[in-house]
Structure formats: structure tokens, C-alpha cells
Amino acid sequence: MKTATGISFLDFKKASTTADFPDQFSHYLKSLGDIYFWEKGNFHVVTKAEDARNVLTNPIFSADRGGFFISRMPDMDLSLIQDFFGVVKKMMVMSDDEEHSKRRKIASSGFEDHIIDRFAKTVQQTVKKLVDEVKDKNQFDFVDISKRLPSTILADLFSIPESDRENFFTLANTMTGFFGGASNYQNADGIEVNNAAKALKSYFENLIVSRRNSNGEDYVSILVRAQKMTQLTDEELVSQMIMMLVAGQVTTTDQINNIMYLFAKHTDIQLEVKKNPLLIANAIEELKRIDPAVTFIFRVARADGMLNSQPIKTGDVIFISTHCVNRDLPLEEKPDEIRIERKAAHFAYGHGPHYCLGAKLGRLQIRLLFEELFKELPLLTLNETLESKRDHYSLSFSGFTNLELAQR
């Protein structure tokens, strides 16, 4: 079995420069091998796209990562997070086989094409409002836009009253940070996330009751009506709703920031898409390939076997580096370069049965935002008088704490 060691991945992420992070990080992980056992993390690492597809489509690898999470909490009293785990273990992202299919089917009922297409007008209105707010600002922190767009869109999708929204997303962020590894996993952290899980669960339980006989077109009402055609319990339904909220907010914010940074850094590319807006959608996909918000996707082996040349035992954890597998292209295609006409596949939304359910909504938000930005604003560049800072708040996610832009 090939093993590797060195500076921890999270420490490497934090030590990388803002400008060079994606390249530095992917090169570091790739330099250790195509597939290897990372001793410091006690998991295998995959850096080749073919191996990644195998892991993400082969039923021998489970999405149930509860045991791995628990192994990262040796100092925590697990009795403090029973409500949190009660919600998480019923999410489709932690499920396999028929259980996953059943949960995914009902969650997807609110993301059918005709629903998202109808919702596009609401997204466009929100995008226009956010862009209008910065039109007269010579410089601004773009993170304000990137945070507010997905949170507003999700609140609109769920039809959450304005008075509840701030608290609603504070609770969601608490769960996302804990779920994604942005925690010291002390008892105080457990109490905080458990309270957040209980509060969200109670909130959604009340929403289900109030919208049980609703004809509304919001996500909650649609799922409640679809529940009649499945065997999902209310608890399972609540878990899928919380999952869509938690998964769709922070990751979209991070991805928007990562894309904007690359556009602002490479102004020649920005000028090209401003000149030809039809290039924007494909350019965005190429920038996701270069700097995905989710840095690792991981699975757990359900049986002994081999992954490429690496022996895998039952219970072993496999981490897929999205930065590496996204760049697994022939050398002549220069995978580290940004080529906005390129149509290379990427893993920014995953792959296989667990491919991101909200990908279409995420793409819609991001495309409409950058179309509006490049239509209504002059050239957006990095503000040289203020430092933009990456936010490597966990092993699994990377975005920006602040992203300082100037209009030229």
C-alpha cells in the first residue's frame, strides 16, 4: 500500500497564497501520488478522475460518513449532539441504495426543470437588486453580494418570512461549519450545533404542518404534496429540507467568490466575456474546474477490495481531491490554464448517484449574477489598496473572508 506524509492538507491550504492557492494545493496533493494513504488523516487520497468516478459510482463505497465524523471528535461528549446526528443520518447525502433513491426522489420534486425555470425571474430580480447597490461604489467587498444572493434565493425558494431569515441562516451556517470540519469539536461546539439542529428541525416541522394542505409553489409545499406518493416520514422530510438549505448556501457563496476572484485576477478573460456574453456560462464552468468550492468529496468502503493498485479495507475512508481530478486532463491541453472555450468535465458538483441535486439552481444563480455584473458594471479588478483573504475554514471547503474589488 502506498502511503504518504507531509504538511497537513488544512495547514497547506492556510499557508498558500491567495493568488496561487488552487495551483499550489492541487500540485501538492498530486505530487504525493495518484492514490495513496495519508497517514496524518487516516484516509486514502484520490487524485485521478478515473479513480474518482469509480469511487462515486461503485456501490462498494458508502456515502454514510457518520463513523468518520465521530472519529474526529475524541474530545466531545457525543450525547451532546444526538439531535444533530438524528437530523443528519436521515439526509440523502448520508444514505445509500434504496434509502438514498427514495429520499432523493422526493427532494428532487422541488427542483424539476419547470419549477427552476419559473423561479428564474425571482433570481433575476434579486441579482439586479444586489448589482444596483454597488453601481455607484468605486470599491466594495464582493463577499456581501456572494453571501446575500444564495441566502435570499433559498429563503425565497422555501418561502421563509423576512422576519425569520437572519436567524434561519445563522442556524444553517452553524450546521454547515460543523458538518464541514470548521470546528474544534469541543463540547461547547457540540451544544451549539445541536441547538441549531433542534431549532431548524422544529421550524421545519411547523412549516410542514402549516403547508400540509397548501397549493403553494414553494419548496416546502411541493415536498409535502410529494410526500403522499412516498413512504417518507415527516422526520425524513425535515432532514431533506435542512440538507438542501445547508448544502445550498455556503457552497454557492464560496463558489461565487472563487469565480469572481479569478475573473478579477485575469482581467483579459473578463474583457473577453464582457465583449461576448455568450461565453459567460462556459467560462464559469471552466473557473469552477480550476477552483471548486468543495475541496474534497469522501466515501467509506463497505467491503475489502482494490482501488486501482491500492488495497482498501472495510471501513477505510477515501478522500477525492476535486482540485486534482478536475485537472486530470492530457498535458497537451494544459490543465492548469484557464481556457474559457474548454468544455472539460469537472467534479465541482460531484458525480454519480449523489450528483448535487441543486446544481441547476446553483448554475442559474451564478450565471445570472455574472451576466448582470458584466453588463451593468465596468471592469472589476482586485482592489490593490486592500487585501483579499481566502477563507480555508475547513478541510472540505474554501472560499473568501473578504474579496475587495474596484471598478475601473
Mind telling me which CATH architecture this is?
Orthogonal Bundle
The fraction of residues in strands falls at 5-15%
Instruction: Give the ordered list of helices and strands.
Output: EHHEEHEHHHHEHHHHHHHEEEEHHEEEE
Radius of gyration: 21 Å
**Low-confidence spans: pLDDT under 50, at least 5 residues?**
none
Tell me about the largest β-sheet. Answer: 6 strands, mixed
What spatial form do the alpha-carbon principal axes imply? globular
Number of domains: 1
The CATH superfamily is known as Cytochrome P450
Residue-averaged pLDDT: 94
Q: For the largest beta sheet, what order do the strands appear in spatially?
A: 1-2-3-9-6-4
Distance between the termini: 54 Å
CATH names the topology as Cytochrome p450
Write down how many β-strands occur, each being a DSSP E stretch of 2 or more residues: 13
Assign the structural class, choosing from mainly alpha, mainly beta, alpha/beta, alpha+beta, or little secondary structure: alpha+beta
Measured as a percent range, the helix fraction is: 40-55%
Indicate the CATH class. Answer: Mainly Alpha
Continuous helix count? 16
